[in-house]
Structure formats: structure tokens, C-alpha cells
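Ops channel
N.P.: pipeline sanity check, posting one input/output pair.
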């Protein structure tokens, strides 16, 4: 995916002028806490930053019969098809605007399910501004002007992830100088069937098997059954059917979307019911994530890709300095859980975590620092917050699922990357074991 600076500013202008959603109430799901703290260590130098984040505020993913909310989304993408896949600037005589027709969508209004809202756009503008203050102003780590040599962007292949990445880049670089032409920013993505930026049961079928086993364990079943009356009550209030196939996650999602926009609940639903659904769904997802294998199957190959970026730089191969990964809550949560950094709180809109690569001045010793929500934290298995890269590489190796583990001996793909092998500086000679089916 590529977009132009003109598209960026049209995107920004529309959001600024036509945001109609009301501000969110104080509910933890609605917005991420952001307090990015600098690291003060005169003996170390920052060499690379990789940030994974959840998209911003969005519309609901499901709608139930008794929900009468109406959604109007005035955040649009301006675009132009181009055959110049390698061009760094473009000159256009027009820009196209993609617009959804009023009251022709499943949601009343003009929004899609899961569409980024003006609030979500603003959340990533704000996050981009904060990241600029830290990595441009404080550290002077990346240039004040955008450079494709320094910044690399990858996003899940859904509009809300792509738009969130664009918004965050606008916040990170409020202006771009392209002269008479428009700078082109490359945004990389992968077909969702093959994407390992989020848990993918096609790439790792064992994830689905393990998940099904975990939810049948006595502790999980007992916990879920203890809230059966509330589940039936909410199903009745949402869909007029106490046996409707609405999960705790589905209830939490729909009611959270209404809450974050100060919209009315279906008759009989209360904020207390939402908070209970939120806590129940959170507990059940945490039950899965506390299983290290579940986190490994969910996100393990992404760790390897991130490590490979770091160790390639340490070995002398040029790399981008600042890498962005725009994803989902179900990406951020297992990413943190595998590293022992997940607190159990559901990743809110615009949740983020950074992996920073540091070295001493002679580049003889390299370190990885994890910063969930911008706060330095100790990775499980590391001897210090500034984790020696060889220790981090060993942790990643332990979290990397093999093709046989994901597919079973009979189904393991014939073509896949080999397990991680480390040289003296911890360089991963193999990249991610992202198995591909024929």
C-alpha cells in the first residue's frame, strides 16, 4: 500500500473538520495511557526502535437486534492508483475519495463494521506527536523530516490498521517537503491469510486446537458457568434470545463501542453489566495467554522478525532505524504476554509497546529494552531491563513455534525457515518460521 502526502493532509483535514463523535467516558477500553519516558544512560546509544500498536477507536464489529445506534463516519481516504511501485514522489492531477453511501451499510449511517473513527484518528495523531517529542526532540534519534531510509511501516491488511498507521505518521511528521511533487510513503502489508502480525490459525493450526482445549479445562468452564445467568440476561437484552450465539467478547465489543461514543445502550443494559462483561472477557482471554505456548503460537514468529532486524544491524547490515507495526489488541496482548509484560488489562485503543535496541559506544555490546506503553520494563528471563541481546535471542528462540509444532509432522510445510541459530553477537541467521501452505 502506498499513500501520498496530499492524501495524508486531506485525511487530516476531513478528520479535523467533521468529527461528530462525542468524547469517550472514563472507561479503560476507550484510550491508551501514554507517558513515554526517556532512558538516561550516557554509556549507551539508541540504535533502533520497533513499535507495535493497536489501531485507534473504531465502530463496533457486530450489531444486535436491540441496538439502535446510528454511526456516521466522516473520516475518509483520498487515493490515486499508481503503477509506479518504486517511485518516491508522484504528481497527480486529481485525487479520488472513497465514500460509503448513507444507510446502505449494515450499521445504520455510513460506517463499516470496525471502521476507524475520527476519535481513533486523533488518538494516533496524539501518539505520533508524543513519539516525535521522544525520538526526534529528546533523543534526536530520527530526523525531523521523514526519510524512507529511516522509517519503515507495516500494517495489518484492514482499513483501520492502515488508517491508524497513516495517522500516527502524520503525528510523527506533521509536515513533509516534497517540492512540486508529493512524497510517497510505502506501507507494507501481507494478505490476511498469510499475515503473522496477528494470531493466525492458518499459519499455525495448532493455535486453534490449543485454544479449544484450554476453554474446556475445568477452571475455565467453572468460571464461565458461574456467570451463565448474566450471559443469558445480556443475550436477551441484546438479541431477544437468552440462547443467542453472542460471546462475552461480542458483548464487550458492542457495548464498549457505544460507551466510547457516549451512545445509549439497548433498553435494560447498564454500565455495570458492561464492566462485568469486560472483566469476564478479560479473565477468559488472560487464561489463554497465561499459557506460554498459546502466546508462542499467536505471535512467536513476529518476535523472530523483530530480532532479525536488530541482529542484522548489530552485524553491520543497514536497517531502518524506526519500524512501525499497526495491528490489533489480539496482537499487542500476546506480544506482551510472551515477554512476561502483560498486566492482564485489555489493550485499549492505540495501545502500544516499543522494543528499543541500544549499544555501547564501541558497538561491542548490544541490549534490548522493552517499553509497554512507553515505560521501561524487565523482560521475563532477562538479567536486567537493558537485556543483553544474546539473552533476548534465547528468549525469542524459546518462543518460536516450529512448523512441526504448528502443523504436526504430517502437515508441516516442505518449505520453511530453519530454527534460530546465533552468532557471537546474537545474530539470528534464520528469519521467522512463517510457514506457507502450498
Amino acid at each position: 500500500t502506498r499513500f501520498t502526502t496530499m492524501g495524508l493532509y486531506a485525511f487530516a483535514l476531513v478528520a479535523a473538520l467533521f468529527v461528530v463523535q462525542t468524547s469517550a467516558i472514563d472507561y479503560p477500553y476507550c484510550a491508551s495511557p501514554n507517558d513515554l519516558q526517556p532512558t538516561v544512560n550516557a554509556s549507551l546509544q539508541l540504535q533502533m526502535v520497533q513499535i507495535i500498536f493497536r489501531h485507534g477507536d473504531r465502530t463496533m464489529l457486530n450489531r444486535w437486534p436491540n441496538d439502535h445506534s446510528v454511526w456516521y463516519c466522516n473520516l475518509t481516504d483520498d487515493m490515486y492508483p499508481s503503477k509506479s511501485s518504486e517511485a518516491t514522489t508522484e504528481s497527480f492531477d486529481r485525487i479520488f475519495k472513497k465514500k460509503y453511501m448513507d444507510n446502505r451499510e449494515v450499521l445504520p449511517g455510513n460506517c463499516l463494521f470496525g471502521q476507524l473513527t475520527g476519535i481513533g484518528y486523533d488518538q494516533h495523531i496524539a501518539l505520533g506527536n508524543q513519539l516525535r517529542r521522544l525520538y526526534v526532540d529528546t533523543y534526536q534519534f530520527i530526523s525531523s523530516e521523514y526519510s524512507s531510509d529511516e522509517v519503515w511501516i507495516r500494517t495489518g491488511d484492514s482499513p483501520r490498521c492502515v488508517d491508524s498507521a497513516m495517522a500516527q505518521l502524520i503525528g510523527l511528521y506533521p509536515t513533509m517537503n516534497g517540492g512540486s511533487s508529493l512524497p510517497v510513503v510505502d506501507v507494507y502489508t501481507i494478505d490476511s491469510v498469510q499475515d503473522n502480525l496477528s494470531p493466525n490459525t492458518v499459519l499455525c493450526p495448532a493455535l486453534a486446537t490449543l485454544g479449544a482445549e484450554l476453554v474446556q479445562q475445568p477452571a475455565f468452564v467453572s468460571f464461565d458457568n458461574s456467570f451463565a445467568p448474566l450471559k443469558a440476561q445480556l443475550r436477551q437484552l441484546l438479541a431477544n434470545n437468552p440462547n443467542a450465539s453472542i460471546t462475552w467478547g461480542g458483548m464487550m465489543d458492542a457495548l464498549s463501542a457505544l460507551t466510547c461514543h457516549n451512545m445509549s445502550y439497548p433498553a435494560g443494559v447498564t454500565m455495570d453489566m458492561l464492566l462485568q462483561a469486560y472483566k469476564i472477557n478479560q479473565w477468559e482471554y488472560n487464561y489463554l495467554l497465561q499459557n506460554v505456548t498459546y502466546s508462542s503460537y499467536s505471535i512467536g514468529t513476529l518476535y523472530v522478525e523483530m530480532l532479525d532486524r536488530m541482529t542484522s544491524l548489530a552485524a553491520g547490515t543497514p536497517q531502518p532505524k524506526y519500524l512501525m507495526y499497526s495491528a490489533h489488541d489480539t496482537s499487542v496482548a500476546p506480544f506482551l504476554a510472551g515477554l512476561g509484560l502483560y498486566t492482564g488489562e485489555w489493550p485499549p485503543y492505540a495501545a502500544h509497546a516499543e522494543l528499543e535496541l541500544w549499544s555501547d559506544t564501541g558497538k561491542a555490546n548490544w541490549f534490548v529494552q522493552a517499553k509497554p506503553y512507553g515505560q521501561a520494563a524487565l523482560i521475563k528471563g532477562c538479567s536486567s531491563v537493558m537485556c543483553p541481546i544474546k539473552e533476548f535471542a534465547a528468549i525469542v528462540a524459546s518462543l518460536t513455534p516450529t512448523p512441526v509444532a504448528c502443523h504436526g509432522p504430517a502437515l508441516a510445510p516442505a518449505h520453511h525457515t530453519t530454527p534460530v541459530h546465533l552468532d557471537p553477537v546474537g545474530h539470528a541467521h534464520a528469519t521467522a518460521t512463517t510457514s506457507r501452505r502450498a
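N.P.: looks fine end to end. The longest strand covers residues 44-54.
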